[in-house]
Design a protein that fits this description.
The protein has helices at residues 6-15, 20-42, 50-67, 77-92, 96-102. The protein is 70% helix and 0% strand. With 105 residues, it is an all-alpha fold.
């Protein structure tokens, strides 16, 4: 599948994250990776190596063991990262349920 924009990729991304538990795992993964990055910048730069391990590790766990699919990151790494932050922002601001309804999921 080829996507030319994030707007094209977003519905596909959301179908790959159809279960609420998968989205919660992604939220925790993104938050944890952001906290690791902040800690690395403020206290110990070695923690920067944990950022992708924590973020992708938790997110991929949710795909393999909760959602039962292959992470979109494997085929579309840039779009997936951007959409992950979009999903994180929607969840953080309480707008995720409205977006799910908008997409007809």
């Amino acid at each position: 599948m080829s996507f030319r924009s994030m707007e094209e990729f977003w519905p596909f991304y959301m179908k790959q994250h159809s279960k609420p538990a998968t989205r919660r795992w992604h939220f925790a993964a993104t938050l944890s990776s952001i906290l690791c990055l902040i800690y690395a910048v403020l206290f110990n730069w070695w923690f920067v190596f944990l950022v992708p391990l924590v973020g992708y590790g938790m997110a991929w766990y949710s795909h393999f063991y909760v959602e039962g699919n292959i992470p979109a990151t494997f085929g579309h790494p840039v779009w997936s990262l951007l959409c992950d932050y979009k999903m994180f922002g929607l969840m953080l601001t309480g707008q995720m349920d409205r977006e799910i309804k908008r997409l007809g999921m």
